[in-house]
């Protein structure tokens, strides 16, 4: 009997590996990915990086301009996350199993959030580019839609996880809907929600770079500009500035998380 | 009569003392560091948001018109999609390319991250090694994926090679963090018991660490696969990686064809939602079996 279990287990892992191999092979063929070229390009890229990809004195003169663009990007990311979080909270209240008003509304709000989440930020930015043109608002709305979708899912899970028993207790005492929300759902869920918001800000600053490249705004545009004019020294300075910003924000949010969770 | 009086005074006393007590106690929300930080965080987020809206450059943009035209555009996109520069089959093939890119990067990333994750976990390796890997990985993670792809594109040329390597970098950074944290949750006693019985490092890994954190590994990897699909779409658009993202970029940036963007969005949406459903299913399956 026990031998059977092991044999079955071995068979299962063998089949799993076989499927993995086949899918890998198909993917390599379909994407025209060249393994040898990929491996060969790694040392080449490293060598190129060390010889060309570092900031020089010329690049440093561009620093004020870069920092200005960075400021714009960070502000937009934070604003998009905050406003997205407010909307997401409302939708999460309607969507969550414990706090929903009725089943239909819950399905609708979950559905809206699913659609917003799964249309990628890059798609949003291209759609919005038609209406807002090359402006900061394009990036703002793209990030806002993405944050809204993601945070709604995260908040729904948080509310379901944290507050189902306390909501039930308050309902038993006859508390009204709003007192349940303000006395139970918000206090018990807020640390987790803030943690998600901070995570979203980090993600948004990274995505803002991508949106910037696509829509011509903020720090992404700065990178794209220097990169395409082959000014790699300045482009590397942009990368360094982004890295420092994201590490700083990560540090701050880790600190906040440590204290509140 | 006398008894009645005393009852009254007692009840009055108790009411009084209750009122007195109320003034002093009932701190439902005790003021501590955590709530202070929560309030500070919320206030600063709101302030930054207000400042952002004030400092926006609205000069050559009409917010209201923009929002209305966005609605119209979205309506056109989703209600009147059509194929012009490619057919249904080509679009499907392009989505497959994007899926392939996502799969390859997730696979390579997971393999590398699994190996390095053992060394990054504090309980399986030494403190300096773990700190070094985690610090290095934090830097890798903080560079946006698109920049990795563009940086590698200089050496490898624009295309799937640069895209896969660039995206793998970011995937490795992300997965090492996820894996090593789930390894660290392993009960210290299990490792100790295996060590005491004379098991070597590899035996500990294969007999204790991997089996007990398999659930985490699978769900993190699948989550990353979902993310990588979205990233692969974006890389097609921003870094010439090919696939459906590139078609989207052409449709919106060169042909200005909203209806075609709509078709592509439907394709991406369908696959993304399918992936999400599979992921949820895999997760619940793992939870019930574990």
From TrEMBL, chain A:
Keywords: Cell membrane, Membrane, Transmembrane, Transmembrane helix, Transport. Its main location: membrane. GO terms for biological process: transmembrane transport. It holds the Pfam family BPD_transp_1. It is a multi-pass membrane protein. InterPro entries: MetI-like, MetI-like_sf. It is found in: Cell membrane. Residues 70-253 form the ABC transmembrane type-1 domain. The chain crosses the membrane at residues 12-30, 74-94, 177-201, 207-227, 234-253. One of its GO terms (cellular component) is plasma membrane. SUPFAM superfamilies: MetI-like (SSF161098). PANTHER family: ABC TRANSPORT SYSTEM PERMEASE PROTEIN P69 (PTHR30043:SF1), PHOSPHONATES TRANSPORT SYSTEM PERMEASE PROTEIN (PTHR30043). Belongs to the binding-protein-dependent transport system permease family. This is ABC transporter permease subunit. The lineage of its organism: Bacteria, Bacillati, Bacillota, Bacilli, Bacillales.
């Amino acid at each position: 009997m026990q031998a059977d279990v092991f044999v079955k287990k071995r068979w299962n892992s063998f089949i799993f590996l076989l499927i993995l191999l086949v899918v890998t092979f198909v993917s390599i063929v379909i994407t025209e990915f060249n393994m040898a070229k990929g491996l060969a390009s790694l040392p080449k890229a490293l060598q190129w990086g060390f010889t060309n990809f570092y900031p020089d004195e010329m690049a440093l003169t561009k620093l004020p301009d870069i920092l200005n663009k960075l400021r714009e990007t960070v502000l937009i990311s934070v604003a998009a996350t905050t406003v997205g979080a407010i909307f997401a909270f409302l939708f999460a209240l309607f969507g969550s199993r414990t706090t929903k008003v009725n089943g239909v509304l819950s399905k609708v709000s979950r559905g809206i959030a699913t659609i917003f989440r799964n249309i990628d930020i890059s798609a949003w930015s291209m759609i919005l580019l038609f209406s807002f043109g090359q402006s900061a608002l394009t990036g703002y709305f793209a990030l806002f839609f993405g944050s809204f979708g993601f945070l709604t899912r995260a908040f729904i899970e948080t509310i379901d996880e944290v507050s189902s028993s306390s909501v039930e207790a308050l309902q038993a005492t006859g508390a009204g809907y709003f007192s349940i929300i303000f006395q139970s759902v918000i206090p018990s869920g807020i640390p987790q929600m803030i943690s998600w918001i901070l995570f979203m800000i980090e993600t948004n600053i990274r995505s803002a770079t991508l949106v910037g490249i696509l829509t011509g705004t903020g720090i992404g545009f700065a990178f794209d500009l220097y990169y395409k004019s082959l000014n790699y020294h300045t482009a590397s300075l942009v990368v360094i500035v982004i890295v420092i910003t994201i590490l700083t924000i990560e540090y701050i949010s880790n600190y906040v998380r440590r204290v509140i969770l | 009569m006398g008894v009645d009086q005393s009852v009254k005074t007692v009840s009055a006393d108790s009411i009084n003392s209750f009122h007195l007590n109320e003034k002093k106690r009932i701190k439902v929300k005790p003021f501590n560091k955590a709530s202070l930080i929560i309030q500070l965080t919320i206030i600063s987020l709101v302030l930054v948001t207000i400042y952002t809206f004030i400092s926006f450059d609205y000069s050559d943009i009409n917010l209201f018109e923009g929002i209305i035209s966005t609605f119209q555009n979205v309506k056109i996109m989703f209600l009147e999609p059509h194929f012009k520069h490619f057919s249904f089959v080509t679009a499907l093939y392009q989505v497959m390319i994007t899926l392939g890119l996502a799969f390859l990067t997730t696979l390579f990333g997971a393999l590398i991250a699994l190996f390095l994750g053992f060394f990054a976990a504090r309980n399986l390796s030494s403190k300096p090694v773990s700190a070094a890997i985690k610090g290095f990985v934090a830097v890798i993670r903080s560079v946006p994926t698109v920049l990795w792809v563009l940086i590698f594109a200089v050496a490898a040329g624009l295309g799937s090679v640069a895209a896969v390597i660039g995206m793998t970098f970011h995937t490795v950074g992300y997965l090492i963090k996820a894996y090593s944290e789930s390894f660290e949750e392993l009960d210290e006693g299990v490792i100790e018991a295996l060590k005491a019985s004379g098991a070597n490092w590899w035996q500990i890994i294969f007999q204790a660490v991997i089996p007990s954190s398999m659930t985490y590994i699978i769900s993190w990897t699948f989550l990353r696969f979902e993310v990588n699909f979205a990233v692969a779409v974006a890389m097609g658009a921003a870094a010439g990686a090919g696939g459906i993202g590139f078609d989207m970029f052409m449709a919106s940036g060169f042909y200005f064809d909203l209806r075609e963007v709509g078709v592509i969005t439907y394709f991406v949406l369908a696959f993304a939602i399918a992936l999400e459903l599979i992921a949820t299913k895999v997760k619940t399956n793992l939870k019930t079996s574990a």
